[in-house]
Design goal:
Blueprint (H helix, E strand, L loop, with lengths): L5 H7 L4 H4 L3 H13 L2 H6 L3 H23 L3 E3 L3 E6 L6 H11 L4 E6 L4 E7 L12 E5 L2 E6 L3 H13 L14 H12 L7 H6 L3 H4 L9 E2 L2 E2 H4 L3
Parallel strand pairs: 2-3
Antiparallel strand pairs: 1-2, 3-4, 4-6, 5-6, 7-8
Helix pairs in contact: 1-5
Length: 232
């Protein structure tokens, strides 16, 4: 069990679906109780409530880590990266920020399967171009968040014409580049046959992830699927 500090627990719990399903009064009660908890008690799980809150925070933390590692983004047009996520907790803004800091010149769009909403983050310059009442926008420093009941395809059809006409987003990538081909060439140049370790590959794939349908990339060992590899 990893050691989680009180400030991180207090940050994560309001994002937990159990917390969000409570009434506003119950939420305030939980937050007050958290603030009054001594740090050592909460971090050491010495009471039943401390164990419960630690478990709730850890569930959110695990889901954040999972979506950072396993979300696959697709290039749309010249300056948009889109993907599909299915978080149980309210972590969309954290995942968006993570990818935005990794790819700061791109607009990041994520569609949540569970919540049936689309979330995106973009440079503040794009905000002036958007005039859609279905978008709920929140500005922060030099970028902004937005969420919408529109599906991924509809939102892309709105944003793509805007970014193509704007100098801030035009030409981030050379449209003549075949990104998939470049990735394959990079992978083939880095892969060394003599370093194949089948036993380590099986060890590093947790059992709970072997059944997930969205982990296509992680379930392959070169040209073999995980099931074929393990002779299932």
């Amino acid at each position: 069990m990893f050691n989680m500090r009180k400030n991180k627990i207090c940050f994560l719990i309001p994002r937990n679906h159990e917390f969000l399903n409570n009434s506003l009064e119950e939420q305030k009660k939980i937050l007050n109780e958290l603030n009054n908890f001594p740090d050592a008690v909460l971090e050491s799980n010495v009471t039943s409530n401390a164990k419960r809150y630690y478990r709730m925070a850890r569930a959110v933390s695990r889901e954040i880590h999972y979506h950072k590692m396993f979300t696959r983004l697709k290039i749309e047009g010249n300056s948009i990266l889109s993907g599909i996520i299915q978080p149980e907790h309210a972590i969309e803004d954290i995942i968006l920020k993570f990818f935005y800091h990794r790819f700061p010149k791109f607009i990041i769009i994520l569609y949540s399967i569970r919540k049936k909403k689309t979330y995106f983050i973009a440079p503040i310059e794009l905000k002036k171009l958007i005039n859609n009442p279905q978008l709920i926008i929140k500005s922060e420093h030099n970028f902004f968040f937005a969420k919408s009941p529109l599906n991924l395809g509809t939102l892309l059809s709105i944003l793509l014409p805007l970014v193509k006409e704007n100098r801030h987003f035009k030409g981030i990538l050379d449209s003549n580049l075949d990104i998939n081909r470049l990735f394959k060439e990079f992978y083939n140049s880095q892969h060394i046959d003599s370093r194949e370790n089948h036993r380590l590959f099986i060890q590093n794939m947790p059992l709970k992830y072997q059944k997930k349908k969205d982990l296509v990339v992680e379930k392959t060992f070169r040209t073999k699927t995980l099931d074929r590899f393990m002779d299932k």
